Every structure is written in structure tokens, then in C-alpha cells.
């Protein structure tokens, strides 16, 4: 018999750790969907997409992504959770090929991929999309 409360508690604790990691720093660590147009139309940002234990962290730059990853790892460690670097992948959009790799707080370099499957849908890098439409960099 499986404990039905365990998945619920996991989601609650993970959500708490993510909120603590990002709280107050949304503008600094986020992915900007739409920039601020006026006081009535503020900036719209995303920092993460979550579904159970599948999480996507989103940032505008590699540097922001590294800081966001470090903060999330730190807050997760405080509540007894840890990142599985073997299952973690990085995908970049519109970034020059020469950028520092993302690493865990333990120094493990995360695998960079051209595409991956998230919640049943394929997510492709910009380079992959450009190749599909016949534009080569």
C-alpha cells in the first residue's frame, strides 16, 4: 500500500523551496514574456514551469540561469531535497555558442541539449528551429 500523502507533501515542500529561492528577485532572475509598456501594462515574467517533479527554470541570460539554479539548489537543500544532475538538461535560445556551461553547486556540469521532451511535447532550441525552416547559421 502506497502512502497517498507523500506526493502531495513533496509538491508542497518543492513549491515552498521554489518560492523562497525566487521571492523578491523575480525581475532579476526571470524570463521576460513582455516588457513593461506603461504603468497599466507591467512587465510579464516567468521564472519556472512546474508539473509534479518536472520543473523548468527560465531566465533571460545564462548568468541569470546560473544564479537561479544556485538559489533553487540552496533552498531545496534546506528542506531536504536535492537536484539530480544526471536527469537535468539545459537548452538555450538566441545565445552565442560560446557561453559558460551551467553547473550545480557541487560543480557538476549540466548536459546541454538541442531538444528535449517536456510533458509529452518536444521543445527545440533556436538552432534546431532554424535548421527546420532551412536557415543555417
TrEMBL record:
Protein's UniProt keywords contain Signal: yes
Sequence ranges assigned to domain Reverse transcriptase in this UniProt record: 1-137
Keyword Transferase: no
The protein's Enzyme Commission number: 3.1.26.4
Transmembrane parts of this sequence: none
Leader sequence residues: 1-23
Any coiled-coil regions, as ranges: 55-82
Enzyme class, broadest EC rank: hydrolase
Entry-linked Pfam families: RVT_1 (PF00078)
The entry's keywords: Coiled coil, Signal
PROSITE patterns: RT_POL (PS50878)
Gene3D superfamilies (UniProt xref): 3.30.70.270
Alphabetized InterPro entries for the sequence: DNA/RNA_pol_sf, Rev_trsase/Diguanyl_cyclase, RT_dom
Single GO molecular function: RNA-DNA hybrid ribonuclease activity
Sequence similarity: Belongs to the beta type-B retroviral polymerase family. HERV class-II K(HML-2) pol subfamily.
Protein name from the UniProt record: ribonuclease H
Amino acid at each position: 500500500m502506497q502512502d497517498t500523502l507523500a506526493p502531495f507533501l513533496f509538491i508542497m515542500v518543492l513549491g515552498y523551496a521554489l518560492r523562497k529561492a525566487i521571492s523578491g528577485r523575480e525581475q532579476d532572475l526571470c524570463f521576460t514574456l513582455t516588457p513593461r509598456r506603461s504603468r497599466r501594462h507591467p512587465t510579464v515574467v516567468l521564472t519556472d514551469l512546474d508539473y509534479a517533479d518536472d520543473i523548468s527554470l527560465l531566465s533571460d541570460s545564462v548568468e541569470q540561469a546560473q544564479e537561479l539554479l544556485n538559489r533553487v539548489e540552496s533552498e531545496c537543500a534546506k528542506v531536504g531535497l536535492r537536484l539530480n544532475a544526471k536527469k537535468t538538461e539545459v537548452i538555450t535560445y538566441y545565445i552565442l555558442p560560446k557561453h559558460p556551461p551551467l553547473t550545480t553547486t557541487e560543480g557538476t556540469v549540466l548536459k546541454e541539449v538541442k531538444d528535449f521532451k517536456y510533458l509529452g511535447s518536444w521543445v527545440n532550441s533556436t538552432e534546431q528551429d532554424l535548421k527546420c525552416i532551412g536557415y543555417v547559421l
